[in-house]
Design a protein that fits this description.
single chain; 233 residues; alpha/beta; eight-stranded parallel β-barrel; 8 helices
Length: 233
C-alpha cells in the first residue's frame, strides 16, 4: 500500500478521523509556514496531545524550524517523531549528512518538502537542492502553477517531448523515495497512484488563507470528502 500523508494536521479530532479513513502518515507543524495565514502551527503542548493519538502503524512527522541541530534532535526525540520534515526552499534547512546520521541513530528519518516542478522543469533539476544530501523521502508538488495539473501533465505534456512527462517522475521515483502532491481529487486519486507506480505515496497539505496561488493545498473538509469516496486501505 502507498503512503497516504497529511501535512499540517492541527487537532486530535483530525488525527482520529484521518487515521480511520486510511491515512498512515500524520504530519504536524511546529514552525510557521509563510505560505499560509491560518492557525495550523502547534505548540509543543498541543503536539503532545496529538502524539498520544497516533496509532501503531501510523508514522508521526514533525515539521520543525532549526534553531540548533541539537535542539531539533532533542525535540524530535522527545515527541517520538518517526520523521522530521524540513522545507527544501531554504538552503539553511538542508541538513549536513552528519546531522542526518545522528537522527538515524535516534531512529528518526528525514523528509524534504516544498520541492516544486512545472511542465517546463528539467527533470534533472527537481531534486537539485538536495542532490548531495541524505534523506528518507522527498515530497514534490507537481505543476502547482498550472490549473488542472494532473490532466495537463498526462494529456498536454506528451505533445512536447522537451516538457516534463509522467515517465520522468517515475524515473526519478525509481532512484529516489518520492511523495507526490498535485491537484488530487476523488476523480483522479486512484489513477495517479496507478500511473505513478514508483512513488512511495501521496501527500495532502492542509491550509487556509494562502498568500500564494502556485502550489497545491487542501482544506480539511476537501480531504475528508476525498478519502470517504476513495478506499485507500
Amino acid at each position: 500500500m502507498k503512503n497516504v500523508k497529511v501535512d499540517r494536521v492541527s487537532s486530535v479530532a483530525e488525527v482520529e478521523t484521518l487515521q480511520r479513513l486510511g491515512v498512515n502518515a500524520i504530519s504536524i507543524s511546529l514552525s510557521s509556514d509563510r505560505k499560509f495565514k491560518d492557525r495550523r502551527t502547534l505548540s509543543k503542548k498541543e503536539a503532545y496531545l496529538i502524539k498520544d493519538k497516533i496509532e501503531k502503524n501510523t508514522s508521526f512527522i514533525g515539521s520543525l524550524s532549526i534553531n540548533s541541530y541539537q535542539e531539533m534532535i532533542e525535540l524530535a526525540t522527545d515527541l517520538e517523531f518517526d520523521y522530521i520534515q524540513l522545507s527544501s526552499i531554504q538552503q539553511s534547512k538542508i541538513l549536513p549528512n552528519e546531522v542526518y546520521q545522528e537522527l538515524k541513530i535516534q531512529g528518526i528519518g528525514l523528509i524534504y518538502s516544498d520541492l516544486e516542478c512545472s511542465y517546463d522543469t528539467d527533470p534533472s533539476w527537481i531534486l537539485r537542492s538536495i542532490h548531495n544530501s541524505d534523506f528518507d523521502f522527498a515530497q514534490i508538488d507537481l505543476l502547482g502553477d498550472i490549473g488542472d495539473s494532473w490532466n495537463f501533465l498526462k494529456e498536454k505534456c506528451p505533445n512536447f517531448t522537451d516538457e516534463l512527462q509522467v515517465s520522468d517522475i517515475n524515473d526519478i521515483a525509481r532512484e529516489n523515495p518520492l511523495l507526490i502532491t498535485t491537484d488530487l481529487s476523488e476523480n483522479n486519486l486512484e489513477e495517479i497512484i496507478d500511473c505513478l507506480a514508483n512513488i512511495k505515496g501521496i501527500a495532502f497539505v492542509l491550509g487556509d488563507n494562502p498568500i500564494r496561488d502556485d502550489f497545491h493545498y487542501f482544506s480539511y473538509c476537501e480531504v475528508i470528502k476525498m478519502l470517504e469516496q476513495v478506499n485507500l486501505r
